[in-house]
Write a structure and sequence with these properties.
The chain has about 190 residues and is an alpha+beta fold. It folds into 2 domains: about 1-65, 3-Layer(aba) Sandwich (Ribosomal Protein L9, domain 1), CATH 3.40.5.10; about 75-150, Ribosomal Protein L9, domain 2. The chain contains 4 helices and 9 strands. It has helices at about 25-30, 40-75, 95-105, 150-190; strands spanning about 1-5, 20, 35-40, 75-85, 90-95, 115, 120-125, 125-135, 135-150. Strand 8 (about 125-135) and strand 9 form a beta hairpin. The radius of gyration is 32 Å and the shape is elongated.
Length: about 190
C-alpha cells in the first residue's frame, strides 16, 4: 500500500514522502498513530501542490544542509573505545556514539538520521556511516575507532591465564608424582621372597 508520511518515521522516511509499506503496518500502526495517511490520487495532487509552493523555501533548507555537509566532510571523526585482547571492543559502537561525538564537535544531529554501514561495530578500525541531513542530502561519513586499552582488564586476563597455567602445571606434577608412586609400589611388590 502507498502512504504519505505526515511525520518523520525512523527507517522509513521524512514528512511528505510517498512510501510503500505492508498493508498491516500502514493500516494498524502508521495511520492510527497519525504518522501517515493513504496516498489516494486526490491526496497526491494536494501533496504535489504543497511541495510546489514549498520548493522556494526548501531550496534554502537544502543549501543549509549542503553547507553542514561540507563542514562534516572536513571533520575527522575518531571515537575512543575500551579494547580488550585481540582488538575487540568492550560493547559496540553505534549511531548513538557517533551522534555524541558529533555533538562534542558542535554538530547537533539526531541519532535517528545516522546509520552505521554494516550495523554495530565491535572491533577497532575504520568504518563508514551515512548521515541524512535532508531527504536530498545524504552524507557518507568515515569514522575510526581508536583503542583505549583497559589495562586493568588486560592485567586480570593475564593473571587468570597465568593462574590457569600454574593450576595445569600443578595438576601435571601431581599426576607425574602419582604415576611414580604407582610404579614404585609395584616394584616393591614384585621383589622375590627369600
Amino acid at each position: 500500500m502507498e502512504i504519505i508520511l505526515i511525520k518523520d518515521v525512523e527507517n522509513l522516511g521524512f514528512t511528505d514522502d510517498i512510501v510503500k509499506v505492508k498493508n498491516g503496518y500502514g493500516r494498524n500502526y502508521l495511520i492510527p498513530q497519525g504518522f501517515a495517511r493513504l496516498a489516494t490520487p486526490s491526496a497526491k495532487k494536494v501533496l504535489a501542490e504543497k511541495i510546489k509552493q514549498r520548493a522556494f523555501k526548501e531550496k534554502h533548507v537544502i543549501d543549509e544542509a549542503n553547507k553542514l555537509a561540507e563542514q562534516l566532510k572536513a571533520l575527522e571523526v575518531k571515537i575512543a573505545a575500551k579494547v580488550g585482547a585481540g582488538d575487540k571492543l568492550f560493547g559496540s559502537i553505534n549511531n548513538q556514539n557517533i551522534a555524541e561525538k558529533l555533538a562534542k564537535e558542535g554538530f547537533e544531529i539526531d541519532k535517528k538520521y545516522i546509520s552505521v554501514v554494516g550495523g554495530n561495530v565491535k572491533r577497532i578500525g575504520k568504518y563508514n556511516a551515512s548521515i541524512r541531513l535532508h531527504r536530498e542530502v545524504i552524507l557518507p561519513l568515515e569514522f575510526e575507532i581508536t583503542p583505549i586499552r583497559d589495562e586493568k582488564a588486560i592485567a586480570e586476563a593475564k593473571a587468570k591465564a597465568a593462574a590457569e597455567a600454574k593450576k595445569a602445571e600443578a595438576a601435571a606434577a601431581a599426576a607425574e608424582k602419582a604415576a611414580e608412586e604407582t610404579t614404585e609400589s609395584t616394584e616393591t611388590n614384585e621383589l622375590p621372597e627369600a
